């Protein structure tokens, strides 16, 4: 019975949470997340057409940045969508609890993963700008995909194990469950805090090195400048989306009214959803030739389709 009562308590909290469906922020959040998913998928397709980038290690960085934004958009819809929450409540108590638990874990994993992506991006840019003579032979650069995969897999296992511990221990004592949940949250906090410190140090050094570079119009030098500025401002933009979340966290500690707290959480959700869209436009800003590539791509596709249609007729 202890097991069932705990499940029921969690589901009832989830049910009360659907009161947010009377607020338009969930519809806005879902719309922005959908736009972010579509735009980043199209962005990856366009990057795949840019041969000058596809042959570089920087191409992988661009792909994982957009891929993490797509994943964040999907998880954001699953977590905040009122329709999905209402559908979950129509399932059995145990199924509702565990599905929502998985969604919450994925939400936390995605947040940490974005910091890992930014850390990898910063390391790649630091080596490219500050140690260019080591770039082609550096072990991290040559095994970037493996390092990223192992790091992401390790985080996924840590978060997964925290869920298994809850499943095993929650039958004994209710307070143990919340202790384990605290450990899960601390995994997120520790990883993001350490990553932020390392990223700050690396990108400050990259920024200083860029200011000291002599003007050069070569294609390689232009790519170094645009890629480095893009990564720097991507990180700045990502950190700025955490400001509403910080205010929301402080408001909960100070016991501010639930209405204000929900508004702050809504702003946080929409800010994080918008990050995925703004990230693509930031890339366009530092790569003016991108729009030309897009127009050329769609023009070629249109001409190809017209020729194929004429041949059939």
From TrEMBL:
Q: Which UniProt keywords apply?
A: Membrane, Transmembrane, Transmembrane helix
The highest taxon in the source lineage is Eukaryota
Q: Can you tell me where the transmembrane regions are?
A: 28-47, 59-80, 95-123, 144-164, 184-204
Q: Does the keyword Hydrolase apply?
A: no
- Please list the residue ranges annotated as the G-protein coupled receptors family 1 profile domain: 39-135
Q: Name one GO cellular component term.
A: membrane
Provide the protein's localization: Membrane
Gene3D superfamilies, A to Z: Rhodopsin 7-helix transmembrane proteins
Query: What is the designated name of this protein?
Result: G-protein coupled receptors family 1 profile domain-containing protein
Instruction: Report the source organism.
Output: Bugula neritina (Brown bryozoan)
């Amino acid at each position: 019975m202890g097991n069932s009562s705990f499940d029921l308590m969690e589901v009832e909290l989830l049910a009360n949470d659907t009161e947010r469906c009377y607020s338009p922020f969930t519809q806005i959040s879902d719309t922005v997340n959908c736009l972010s998913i579509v735009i980043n998928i199209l962005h990856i397709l366009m990057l795949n057409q840019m041969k000058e980038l596809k042959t570089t290690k920087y191409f992988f960085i661009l792909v994982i940045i957009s891929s993490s934004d797509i994943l964040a958009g999907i998880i954001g819809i699953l977590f905040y969508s009122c329709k999905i929450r209402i559908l979950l409540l129509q399932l059995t108590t145990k199924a509702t609890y565990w599905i929502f638990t998985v969604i919450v874990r994925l939400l936390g994993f995605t947040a940490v993963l974005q910091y890992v992506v930014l850390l990898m991006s910063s390391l790649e840019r630091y080596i490219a700008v500050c140690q260019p003579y080591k770039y082609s032979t550096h072990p991290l650069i040559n095994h970037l995909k493996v390092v990223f995969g192992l790091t992401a897999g390790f985080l996924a296992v840590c978060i997964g194990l925290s869920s298994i511990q809850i499943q095993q221990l929650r039958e004994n004592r209710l307070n143990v469950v919340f202790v384990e949940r605290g450990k899960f949250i601390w995994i997120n906090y520790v990883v993001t805090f350490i990553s932020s410190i390392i990223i700050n140090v690396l990108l400050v050094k990259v920024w200083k090195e860029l200011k000291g570079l002599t003007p050069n119009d070569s294609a390689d030098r232009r790519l170094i400048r645009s890629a480095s500025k893009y990564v720097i401002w991507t990180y700045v933009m990502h950190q700025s989306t955490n400001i509403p979340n910080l205010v929301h966290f402080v408001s909960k500690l100070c016991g501010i009214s639930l209405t204000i707290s929900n508004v702050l959480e809504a702003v946080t959700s929409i800010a994080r959803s918008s990050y995925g869209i703004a990230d693509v436009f930031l890339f366009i800003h530092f790569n003016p030739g991108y729009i030309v590539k897009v127009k050329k791509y769609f023009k070629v596709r249109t001409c190809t389709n017209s020729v194929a249609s004429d041949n059939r007729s």
